[in-house]
Amino acid sequence: MISWKSLVIVAAVVVLSAAFYNPYLSQASFEDDYQGFLKTYDNYRSAQSNYVTTRNQYLQYGTLNSKNDALSAVKTFLVARDDVLLSHISLIKGRNADTTYNSLLDNTVSFLQDHKSRVPAVGSLDDAVKISQEVESKDSNLQSTSRKVVGSLLVAKVDGLKLQFLVLENNAQDLITKLKNNGKNVEVQERWLLDAKNKRLLIEDKLLQARTKINNLQDSNADSINAAYNEIQTTVFEANQYLREGMQFINELAQSIKYGNF
Q: Long-range CB contacts (< 8 A, 24+ apart) of 37-45?
C-alpha cells in the first residue's frame, strides 16, 4: 500500500499558503486564488480519508472487493494529491514577481501533469506504490522551493515599504536643512531624523540576512525546511518592526515641525 510518507507532502502546504495572509500581501485578487486552492485541498482531504478507510478494510479482510475498492480509492487520492500540488504551485507562482524560481516550478508542473495523466492506467496496488513514490521523491525540492518563493515575497514587500520610508527620510532631511539655513534651531528634529536613519540601517541589515537565509535554504527533511523558513519569516518580521519604529520617529519629527516655532 501507499506509504504514509505520501501524506506528508501536502502537510505544510496550508501553513505555507497561510503566510500570504500577512498584512503586506493582502489583496482582493489573491483571495480568489486562495479559495480555489482551498477547494482542491478539501478534495484532497476527502480522497485521503476515503483511501485510509478502504486501505484499512483491505488490510483487515483481504477480499477481492476490498482490494478493488482500495485500488480505486488510491488512484483517486493520487490524482487529488497532484491537483492540490499543482494548485499550490499556481498560487505561489502567480504572486512571484521574481522569476528566479519559475524554471524549477515549471519543471515540477510538467512532472505533476504527466504523473496525473498516468494514474488512471495503474492496474495494481504495487504499481500504485511505485507511481506514488515518484511524487514523494519531489517532496523536499518542492517544499524548499515554495518557501524560497514565499520568503522572497515577504522580503520584497518589506523592501518596498523601506523605499517609501527612505523617500520620507530624504524629504525630512531637505526640510531640516532649509530650516537650519534659515537660522532655526533644529537639534530636536535632527535627533529624530538620526534615530529614523538608524532604524532604516537595521531594516536593511535584516533584509540582507533574510535574503542570505533564503539563498542558503537547502532540500532536506520537512522539519529542517520548516525550521529554516521560520527563521526567514522571523527575520523579515523583525525588519518590519524596525520599519514601524522608524516611522514613529519620522512622525515625531513631523509633529515637532508642525507645532514648533518655525
A: 37/84, 37/87, 37/88, 37/90, 37/91, 40/80, 40/83, 40/84, 40/86, 40/87, 41/10, 41/13, 41/14, 41/84, 41/87, 43/80, 43/83, 43/84, 44/10, 44/77, 44/80, 44/81, 44/83, 44/84
pLDDT tens digit string along 20-75? 444 444 455 667 778 888 899 999 999 999 999 999 999 999 999 999 999 999 99
pTM to 2 decimals? 0.80
pLDDT band at 178 (very low <50, low <70, confident <90, very high): very high
Give CA–CA dist 232/246, Å, rounded: 21
Give every CB contact of residue 94 below 8 A, 6+ residues apart in sequence.
33
The whole-angstrom distance between residue 17's C-alpha and the CA centroid of its chain comes to 6
Residue 108: Cβ within 10 Å count = 19
Encode burial over 60-85: b for 16+ CB neighbours within 10 A, e otherwise: eeeeeebbebbbebbbbbbbbbbbbb
> 82: closest CA among 138, 130, 35, 30?
138
* Chain segment 80-106, per-residue pLDDT in tens: 999 999 988 888 887 776 678 888 889
Helical residues (DSSP H) of the chain, grouped into ranges: 13-18, 28-61, 64-94, 102-118, 125-136, 139-181, 187-216, 222-258
Query: What pLDDT does 101 receive?
Result: 84
Mean of pLDDT values over 102-124: 94
Question: What DSSP designation does 206 have?
Answer: H
Residue spans per domain, the chain: 4-137, 149-258
Cell output for 178? 532649509
| Angstrom distance (rounded) from CA 159 to CA 222 | 28
